[in-house]
Amino acid sequence: MDQVKDTRPLLVVDLDGTLVRSDMLYESFWSAFSRDWRTPLSALAALARGKAALKARLATLGAPDPATLPYSAEVLDEIGRWRASGGRVVLVTAADQSIANAIASHLGVFDEVHGSDGSTNLKGEAKAAFLRAEYGGGGYVYAGDNSADLPVWRDAAGAVTVGVSPALRARVEDLHRDARHLAPPRSLLPAALRAMRPHQWFKNALIFFPMIAAHDFNAGALLPSLLAVVAFSLVASSVYLLNDLLDIASDRAHPRKRLRPLASGALPLRSGMLMVPALLLAGIGVAVFLPPLFLLVLGAYYILTVAYSLWFKRRPILDIALLASLYTMRVIAGGAASGIDLSVWLLAFSAFLFFSLAAVKRQAELVDMAQRNVTEAAGRGYRVSDLAVVTQMATASGFVAVLVLMLYLNEPEVLMLYHHPLLLWAACLVLLYWVSRMVLVASRGRMNDDPTVFAARDPASLVSVAIIGALFIGAKVL
User: Fold this and answer.
1) Whole-angstrom Cα distance, residue 419 to residue 429?
2) SS3 of 383, please?
3) Counting Cβ atoms within 10 Å, is residue 385 exposed (0-12), middle (13-18) or buried (19+)?
4) Contact 146, 131 (CB under 8 A)
5) CB environment 405-417: b (16+ within 10 A), e (fewer)
6) Sheet holding 180-182, edge to edge
7) Residue-range domain boundaries for the chain
8) What is the DSSP letter of 17?
9) 398 and which of 366, 374, 435, 471 could share a cystine (Cβ 3.0–4.6 Å)?
10) CATH number of 189-477
């Protein structure tokens, strides 16, 4: 008996940029890279055999979790309506077949699934030829998002676009006047700015520490310090984006971090990848106007942050030590930019204080894990059972920082700088209170951000800083 052909209306749906607000090639690359720094070498070797081979290799090394991907609600609704009317829905994508199968299995809404097979990259003309052979010309309605889909739309009986630009929308309407348009495009600028984390630039105020400690407020120190802040902010944003790319899988599993621009799909991974070198070069462009030593410190900072993202963040305690070093390097950069020599006292105080803050950051994450009933941090190397030890590290290091400040204030050359040095001991007590309060706040699960960013928004912290500043000024001028 001849097989009866299914004549129900057919909707063919693309994956990258259509069903999912992301690209599986980039997803699998960064997922694999976060696990193994040698991934780019494996990717280059696979690319020599073609793009389909590259996708197959990366899918093996770092397939994304279908449960956490940023799906398009509009496209899922369209699929639901199509199925409710009795139509069939097929997923046809240039992503590797294994990834397409995993996503289809997770969603459970597709009648068929077709993807790249390691030798054929199912995109553009290749996808159009496949659909003609499989379903015949004009045998389907196609939902896509990219100009590479134009050959497919040309053969299709109807068109659905997802988030396309006005120019591409017009080209599709030339082919199908009744084309339907879902998810109008949004400006990427707000998402790009959020991904740069400008609220984290507050940490770069540490660059002014050497100038403040030396009581050197002339333009020769102030202007270079301001340029250094700009350079550090741009380079730091480059690092934040790189870190978000590497952490995209773990961020999506986190209740708050999943809302970050890259994790949520608000900013395409490709855009984030382009911003990483662009911001780095912009920061270097500003740094060339400063002394060569500053550029050297900036370069060391970038190398260490990349090493942290790729390796150190998975090593308990070492990650805290490196985070503290990155804070301290901002102080060193301030001295390099302004030409002010750094005292051993300032470096010791910075090292202990920032080790305390880095430990508080980990403490807050462990408290959050305990509240969510998560026993082990994915890719971090910490367990909830480590909370007591990390809390002790944060408290002890913070108290040692206060002790270093007290000893520094007792130095004869320091006493000569102030008319009323006894006021400085009161500042030490305020700092002791602030360190203790930061540990307490973190232990209660109320610290949802980096400690320095939290402090910039916390009224008690701002009052503490104001009091300390007032005491130092009073000791100097009264």
Assistant:
1) 19
2) strand
3) exposed
4) no
5) bbebbeeeebeee
6) 112-116, 88-96, 10-13, 141-144, 158-162, 180-182
7) 10-182, 189-477
8) T
9) 435
10) 1.10.357.140
Dihedral sign for Cα atoms in the order 221, 222, 227, 232 = positive
Residue with tokens 């382009």: 274
Task: Return the H-helix or E-strand segment holding 89.
Answer: strand 88-96
Pairing of strands 158-162, 141-144: parallel
**pLDDT tens digits, the chain, 478 residues: what are they?**
444 455 567 999 999 999 999 999 999 999 999 888 889 999 999 999 999 999 999 999 999 999 999 999 999 999 999 999 999 999 999 999 999 999 999 999 999 999 999 999 999 999 999 999 999 888 899 999 999 999 999 999 999 999 999 999 999 999 999 999 998 888 899 999 999 999 888 889 889 988 887 777 788 788 999 999 999 999 999 999 999 999 888 888 877 888 899 999 999 999 999 999 999 999 999 999 999 999 999 999 999 998 888 888 888 889 999 999 999 999 999 999 988 888 888 889 999 999 999 999 999 989 988 888 876 665 567 888 889 999 999 999 999 999 998 888 887 777 777 777 788 889 999 999 999 999 999 999 888 778 888 888 899 999 999 999 899 888 877 7
Q: What is the pTM of this model?
A: 0.84
Domain 10-182 sits in CATH 1.20.1260.10? no
